[in-house]
Give the backbone structure.
Amino acid sequence: MEDLYRKLFNELPGYIRAQDRDFRIIAANRMFRAEFGASEGSSCFSVIKGRSNKCDACSVEKTFQDGECHASEEIVKFKDGKEISVIAYTAPIRDDAGNITAVEVTFTDITKVKRLQQKYRTLFDMTPCYIAVLNKDFKISNVNRWFEQDFGEGVGRFCYEIYKHRKEPCIDCPVARTFQDGEIHHSEEVVTSREGSQKHVRCYTAPIRDPNGDIVSVMEMSADITDLRQLQSRLTSLGMLVGSISHGIKGLLSGIDGGIYLMETGFQNDRKERVDQGWSMLKRNIERIRSMVMNVLYYAKDREIFWKSIDVEKIVASVKDILDSRARRHNVELRMKAEPGEFDGDQDAIHSLLINLLENSIDACRVDKSKQSHTVSLSSRFQDEQVVFDIVDNGIGMDQETREKAFSLFFSSKGAEGTGLGLFIAHKIIKSHSGTIDIESDPGKGTRFIVKIPRHRQTSNGIHERLDNPLQG
Amino acid sequence: MTEYSTDESQRVLEGRKILVVDDEPDALTFIATVLEDHGATVLQATDGDEALDLVRKEKPDLMTLDLAMPGKNGVDVYIELRESQDLPQLPVCIITGRPEMRKLIYERQTIPAPEGYISKPVSEKQLLINIRKILEIPHT
């Protein structure tokens, strides 16, 4: 009979052994001996793990202590060095008096299951969206790596807390709906990453059921669609741009119609002063359409900067030429003063920048009825390796709101004439030259723009680069 | 191609005093010149306060009013005029490049709609037809 048990023990499909209290192996079946080597009398930790002392959490020890069966997952090593994953089950062996004399340990090889598990875990982790598994209280029980990367650990915390920094569940939550009806739901959400950046996500929820078909948790999968939304908002602003430009051009068409009317009636009635008046009206409005189109071009594409050395005196003189008649027409005195010298920049862009700022100042004077005389002055100087443009007017001035929104796209306080592009473009040009702009302004008193641009082109590593050759860059 | 003709003998607006309000100088000059060429006496204002001032002092027969103006805009001017007890109630023709501002006036139930409305850009012909209609000057 004992022989039969011995045979049975030996041939059982699994790695089976018996141990004493000192962690010594007192018996092992054939499979165990074959894979782990001759072992009776040696300590289990050295045989199955290659350790020199006992493992920290030892199931054998626990079974000796409490007489219960235990199970634990372990990674063990064959004698040839190959590692396998096992579940170790322990059971007490008692003598006739009921004392535990040995503990029997059975290893079940779960390496294949583990590998499969690992494969699915990798798929879960590498799915390019944020995945979180939630319980009924919206507590997170599992997340993938993408989630962890952008939102932190998360497990054990509430999804609304992690995603939206809220203290209570969101209204109209797709997870709650999936818990209710077991269907897949979706919604679009704006969530905040742990770094504080906002992300637009398209969120899908799916039920996870237990073998009885009851929903135990819900998987929430959120795809980042921030790029898409940014594109959408760019398209929206493009639409606004088209609207704003159409309004601007409509206004200028009135001026062109007016110019044509004055010229035609002037010719008909032989009134030269009327022809002249119409002619200058035409020229003025065509020039303004030109600068509006330039602004649209600056807005519409990120124009590459064509770096060259710019002569400040020349560019200031050219700007004065263009704006002189406009200033005179509105009884605004235009004063220009430039310290001789050169700086690096895109000539056309700097030209547009100065025109935009000065036109803004002239307009601020035009609409100001509180003063008898108006002046717009532009002075430029070199200071601390920067070129500084100081533009001062005594026009209508800006209140705080106008000041804060002055550089916003499509913001205009100018009525029909403003496209809301001029100062936005000016700001964009200054930024592209690594420069700064400050506004000092008081309602009723006037406005001062201070523009500072590095005198020499700054390369990406912060080193100033001199441009002696205008063709360089 | 727009055809412009000024038959100055046809001074259909002779004896009429018209106030033209527009912050855009070229539009102002254009409207004012067309009206003057047809015999009207033209007053000009470039902002809302100036416009109401001239209405009070000069009592014009009609006002053309731009809506989008900095400061007190055309909508404010129209509402102030119509709600006022002591300003003379003259007919008003809105001339604007911002049609969306129109509803600020037309959706107000408490005041009557303006007598005329023209979208910019405005042609000479369109301007005259509207002004004549408002002032009830028949075609000859």
Notes: The CA atoms of residues 115 and 134 of chain B lie 6 Å apart. DSSP finds five helices and five strands in chain B. The two ends of chain B are 26 Å apart (CA to CA).
